[in-house]
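I would like you to help me understand the sequence and structure tokens below and explain how sequence relates to structure.
___
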Amino acid sequence: QIRELKDYCKRQDYVIADIYNDAGHSAKDLKRPNMERMLNDIEKGIIDVVVAIKVDRLTREGYDGHWFLKYCKENNCAIDLLYENYDINTPNGEMLYGMNVLFAQRERREISGRTKRGMEEAVRQGKYPNKARYGYQKDENGILIPDPITSLVVKDIYSMYLSGMSSADIMDQLKSDNRYTDHFSIRPHTIINIIRNPIYKGDLLWGRTMRKKEEVVYIENHHIPLVSKE
């Protein structure tokens, strides 16, 4: 696509100021490294035409799409879309641009919904799509199984907590015994998070940080527990 854009710019006698490639970043919003750099260059007057393959390469969010168009107008910058058969700088073209932004937004949300449903189904089948929590690892099927070393640390945390030790005391004890790995920074709130997480009793609370309360999925006996429910 970059080669296509370069060839198109050559045919249109555009002088390429720069290539703003945000490969690997979602177009769900404008908060992308090269997009933000391009916005700065537009404001500085370095760019007078933004050339893109399609509108969904710029953004897939309705509000952002209209904001970007307005921003370009305010900074005397045109938009040229290679695969779109309309002139965005005309009233009719602006209308079609707005419609295509909404179509891109709808497609993104449908994909997001399918992904969410797919992950939820995988979770219900016993899999764990995310990175394994401390104390666990994942087998070849994506199922949580106790990690031979860190699971013992988790069990010790529970034992010390039940014996009446505070989270700060547990932290000091673990550090004294060198019972933690480099990627796991022991803090009092880390201890509390482990104690409160139902994952260690074999239950899974899926989506508690990213979903509405009524959409959170709670699955009992989802995987091998490290501690008893009691």
